[in-house]
Specification:
Shape: globular
Strand order of the largest sheet: 1-2-3-4
Mean pLDDT: 86
Order of helices and strands: HEEEEHHEHEEE
Low-confidence stretches: 1-21
Number of domains: 1
């Protein structure tokens, strides 16, 4: 009987130790400075992962201009992002989901996402350009752009409109 209790206690200890080793902590914030709403002064790009479990987490992307004013905010539910990738990724366990969300946070500010300038003079708008006048404005101002993905099939390209004094989408694609 003593041996059975010892064996049970040992198994519980081993199971608990294995469970704690599989726990993945979420990265909570990444920040990058980048000339965006002005060609010289830098704005602060920030991505936060808010929440403790993948079911209630959100990614919050903000841009704060060089004067300290928030000029852009996009909030994406983690479940929406995970759903987009579930077919191609093995995201069944909570630790895998958190690991995946951490990876998304890490690559969000990869250099390739910062476009200098947003639109070159030889680029032409196509059917994925929602506002052709804004596209032409970007050719004139030569301000920088940024793109991010909300899933494997949706990329959004944004830039600052000097005419409208706000961040706008200038290209959306698959």
């Amino acid at each position: 009987m003593k041996y059975a209790h010892f064996l049970l206690l040992s198994l519980i200890s081993i199971f608990t130790a294995c469970q704690s080793n599989n726990k993945v902590e979420a990265i909570t914030e990444k920040t990058k400075l980048y000339a965006f709403s002005d060609s010289i002064q830098t704005d602060t790009f920030k991505i936060n992962l808010i929440g403790s479990k993948s079911d209630d987490m959100s990614l919050v992307f903000t841009i704060i201009n060089f004067d300290g004013v928030q000029i852009f905010k996009e909030e994406v539910k983690a479940t929406q992002l995970l759903k987009s990738y579930l077919a191609s990724e093995d995201l069944k366990k909570e630790s895998d989901k958190i690991r995946f969300l951490n990876e998304q946070l890490t690559v969000f500010f990869d250099e390739e996402h910062f476009l200098e300038p947003a639109v070159t003079t030889d680029q032409e708008p196509d059917s994925n350009t929602p506002d052709k006048a804004f596209y032409d404005e970007l050719k004139e101002t030569r301000l920088n752009g940024f793109y991010y993905s909300l899933g494997k099939d949706k990329s959004i390209y944004i830039a600052w409109s000097t005419k409208e004094k706000k961040v706008k989408i200038y290209y959306q694609c698959c």
